[in-house]
Backbone:
């Protein structure tokens, strides 16, 4: 049995990664360590709870004693590290949570792995999941490659950049076997409805205004979450030690065009006359320091590991809308009192 720790697997991307690993690798013994913050939800992985190759542990990656005990008890050979505070707007209002989890938490995990592995690195791996936001913001031209200089602009991306640097430093200094991947914006089922796509779906469904920051001209490169999970699987198994892989959808959209497309799909699904939902679009105060454009050059993972996105945006958006319309209980449950308070504070509409 290969013993793997996956952190943050009750969250959006982690839940899809966990499902893929638990279902495909019966011979892996997988522990999911998750604090269950507002973004972590055991309902995301309810289907996996009785699988014999999977154990859930509720806990904080910053809790050194707990993390050390877990490494000793389970003798992990690999770590796939996804746990993080992940929402840029929250990082603007409360950076400290991001410093704690994204930076300190990562170092706690690195130290526990280093202590357990004790320079015996054969068959070991620390795989760190990161974001394209560490590269900063692009102008109208160009793409982020694996060698683009880091230039993070938000407390979220600065904290993720720090964690990437620390993971590389452990490789360089202690020879720890590491891999890092930096992915573009994900979308799909199970994403907390503070992020653009699920927030818009929820608001359209409830006939509420769709808040678009600034003029809606910012560009993101969207990837269906299950394609990201497949990329993580490929990198985990076939990627080279010490390497970084960029993962993207070759799928750039301005926020306004994306939301118009989403409105069109929602009108059809909700059997509303076309252009009904578009009327909900409302331009609001821009995000502070809002990055203009992210776009990934994913030729390295394509050429070296033969990974390609498989889900078109049209298909993925439709699947995503269907997921949110079918999982109304999930949506109601996650829209807690805390979320309502956050929503009121973040949006003056
Ligand atoms: P998410 O916010 O949906 O989930 C984060 C998970 O981590 C939650 O289950 C939460 O409970 C858990 N967590 C938070 N703090 C913790 C702590 N201190 N200890 C233990 N668990 C903790 O995030 P996501 O969108 O699934 O992102 C997962 C990872 O992928 C993050 O590292 C993020 O930076 C990265 N990433 C996200 C995107 C994206 O578009 N969402 C794109 C590229 C990379
Ligand atoms: P988001 O989903 O928060 O991801 P990120 O900031 O990590 O890229 O936002 C995606 C884009 O949508 C980003 O340009 C900010 C914008 N946005 C809005 O216009 N309105 C919103 O209510 C939100 C949450 C985001």
Residues:
């Amino acid at each position: 049995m290969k013993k793997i720790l996956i952190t943050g697997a009750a969250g959006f991307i982690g839940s899809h990664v966990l499902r893929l690993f638990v279902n495909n690798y019966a011979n892996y013994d997988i522990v999911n360590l998750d604090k269950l913050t507002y973004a972590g939800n055991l309902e995301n992985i309810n289907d996996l709870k009785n699988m014999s190759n999977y154990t859930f542990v509720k806990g904080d990656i910053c809790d050194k004693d707990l993390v050390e005990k877990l490494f000793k008890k389970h003798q992990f050979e690999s770590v796939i590290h996804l746990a993080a505070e992940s929402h840029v707007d929250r990082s603007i209002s409360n950076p400290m949570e991001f410093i704690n989890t994204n930076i300190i938490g990562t170092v706690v995990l690195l130290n526990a792995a280093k202590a357990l592995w004790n320079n015996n690195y054969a068959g070991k791996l620390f795989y760190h999941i990161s974001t394209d936001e560490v590269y900063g913001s692009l102008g109208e031209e160009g793409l982020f490659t694996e060698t683009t200089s880091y230039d993070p602009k938000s407390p979220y991306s600065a904290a993720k950049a720090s964690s990437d640097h620390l993971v590389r430093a452990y490789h360089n200094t202690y020879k720890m076997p590491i891999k890092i991947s930096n992915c573009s914006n994900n979308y799909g089922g199970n994403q907390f409805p503070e992020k653009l796509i699920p927030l818009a779906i929820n608001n359209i469904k409830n006939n509420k205004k769709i808040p678009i920051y600034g003029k809606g001209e910012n560009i993101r490169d969207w990837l269906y979450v299950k394609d990201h999970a497949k990329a993580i699987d490929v990198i985990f198994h076939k990627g080279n030690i010490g390497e970084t892989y960029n993962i993207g959808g070759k799928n750039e959209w301005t926020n306004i065009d994306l939301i118009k497309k989403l409105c069109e799909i929602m009108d059809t699904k909700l059997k509303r006359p076309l252009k009904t939902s578009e009327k909900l679009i409302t331009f609001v105060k821009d995000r502070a320091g809002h990055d203009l454009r992210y776009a990934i050059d994913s030729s390295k993972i394509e050429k070296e590991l033969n990974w390609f996105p498989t889900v078109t945006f049209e298909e993925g958006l439709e699947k995503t809308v269907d997921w949110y319309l079918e999982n109304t209980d999930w949506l109601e449950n996650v829209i807690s009192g805390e979320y309502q308070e956050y929503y009121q504070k973040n949006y003056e509409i």
User: Anything to note?
Assistant: The pocket of thymidine-5'-diphosphate (ligand 2) is lined by residues 88, 185, 195-196, 199, 211-213, 218, 220, 255, 287 (CB under 6 Å). The CA atoms of residues 159 and 169 lie 15 Å apart. The radius of gyration is 20 Å. The first strand starts at residue 2 and ends at 7.
